[in-house]
Amino acid sequence: xxxxxxxxxxxxxxxxxxxxxxxxxxxxxxxxxxxxxxxxxxxxxxxxxxxxxxxxxxxxxxxxxxxxxxxxxxxxxxxxxxxxxxxxxxxxxxxxxxxxxxxxxxxxxxxxxxxxxxxxxxxxxxxxxxxxxxxxxxxxxxxxxxxxxxxxxxxxxxxxxxxxxxxxxxxxxxxxxxxxxxxxxxxxxxxxxxxxxxxxxxx
Length: 203
Fold this sequence. Notes:
CATH topology of the largest domain: Alpha/beta knot
Radius of gyration: 20 Å
CATH class of the largest domain: Alpha Beta
Shape: elongated
Mean pLDDT: 84
Strand content: 5-15%
Strand order of the largest sheet: 2-4-1-3
Distance between the termini: 64 Å
Largest sheet: 4 strands, parallel
CATH superfamily of the largest domain: SPOUT methyltransferase, trefoil knot domain
Helix content: 40-55%
Number of helices: 9
């Protein structure tokens, strides 16, 4: 959308935010330099078995987000129909703002205000935390997990579902560097053992 005089009039003392605003052609382009992505949606899964829209509540999110490393991206949906499933799948976690059952969806401006204010309040109370992993480390972790599914001949029709589950687990946990290296060590050892046993079986 175009930023006109009405936008600047409503921005009041926050016109610098409008001056610094950037427009991108896609979510992928907008988030390529970000380390941790948080989707927001009022539509959640009806069962824990469906991991794509299994949300973290705002209160829990605001307590753990400061463990994340690097640049964090908050991904809000369109005013009329929110985020598509593939956009939510691209994010590390999905966030839900608790609302009344009679009014499940919030206006976009209200949702942004509530989330940012919650983060601001929590940030004023929380001291500096441990070092968490960045986007490159997460990518490597997900690659190792995907390789493990391949090596154990995991059911093909369940692979994507299980990858999303693992991504959501890591998104909620926000593992530290130490936890990351420990987990990578376990996965690496497991992959090596499987490969060795397959080699022996083939010979």
